[in-house]
Structures are given as structure tokens and as C-alpha cells.
Amino acid sequence: MSAPVRVLLVDDETLLRSAIGSLLGLAPELEVVAQAEHGGRAVELAAEHRPDVVVMDLEMPVLDGVEAAERILREAPETAVLLLTRHGRPGVLKRALAAGVRGFMLKSMDAEELVRVILRLHEGRRWIDPEVSAAAMMDDNPLTEREVDVLRLTGEGLSVREMSGRLHLAGGTVRNYLSAALQKTGAESRHRAARIARERGWI
Q1: Which of 60, 70, 92, 193 is the most exposed place for a label (fewest CB within 10 A)?
Q2: Last residue of some domain: 121, 137, 153?
Q3: In this structure, are residues 102 and 52 in contact, taking their beta carbons and an 8 Å threshold?
Q4: pLDDT in tens, 5-30
Q5: Strands 103-106 and 127-128
């Protein structure tokens, strides 16, 4: 019998994380080796345990699922990452695939389906929930890649000066990107623009 697939489970909702962990623990093909409460901790535990598959919530504090996936896959590109979300928002799938995520599914899935998808990803294949895929086809994100960058950093609380250093851009250039993003979102401030963009799945 082959060794069980080693899984790292990540979700900031303790009750839900425990429930999913218990369900996965019933599958003889799987072994939950660690659990994390946010994306930052997920990166640490992934480095420590080297799981085969990371099952991770999309929306979390410290680092969201895509940001955590980027860091995990940078160090261990062979790891399969499955993101879970409540909403198939347009824009999110594109970010996830660009980060190297192999699977994307809604939290409304049943336990048997989750196990099947985890095993599929471990075999090197992809799996995208049809609802998420359909939403991505209707993606109407008007923001450029740099506008997404500055709004994401705004959401992290960075100042224009700090964004300039992080992105290696002049302060005036950052302000130009922010101004364009404000126009496209119809927001009165960059913080409001960041919230609108995140709600619509653009960042």
C-alpha cells in the first residue's frame, strides 16, 4: 500500500478547519500532518512539514491564500495547492493560477469530492470548480497589473513611499497608478478603491 498523501490544512475559522480536518482524517489515503490558522503560519508549516498538498482558505488574515501559495511554491514548487472559497469571484482564479495554484473549489463541496480533488492534484493534475471557471470567463477586471499591485499593497496598509520601495517605482509613478485605479473603481480614496477591487475579486 502506498504512503498516504500528506496534507497541510489552513483556515482562519477554527471550527471549520477542525471539521474539515476530521473529515479528511477519515480517508485512509490522506494524512493531515499540520493545521494553520492564517497564511503566514501556513508558509512556516509548509517549510517545516513539506506536505504533498496544501488545502487552504482563500480569504485569511496576515497573508491571503494566493499570497501564501506564492511563498510556499517559491520554496517547494512540487507542492500542490488547493484553494477553498465561498464565492467564485471573477479575477481571483486568474491570480491563483498565476501563482501556481493547481486547484480551486467552493466550500460548498462535500467531503468525498474534496478527497477526490486532493488525490487528483497529488497526481499532478488540475481541478477548477465549474462555477469558478464560469465566473473567470466573465472577468471584467479593468485594472492593469501595476494598478492591482498598488491596490493590494494599499490593502496591506503600506504608504506611497513604502509601495515605491517594494515595487521599485518612483513615488510619482505609484501615485499615477493609484489615480488610475481610483478612476476605474469610482472610489474617493485609495483605501476605498482597494476594498472595492477586493470585493469584486480583482485583487
Answers
A1: 70
A2: 137
A3: no
A4: 999 999 999 999 999 999 999 999 99
A5: parallel
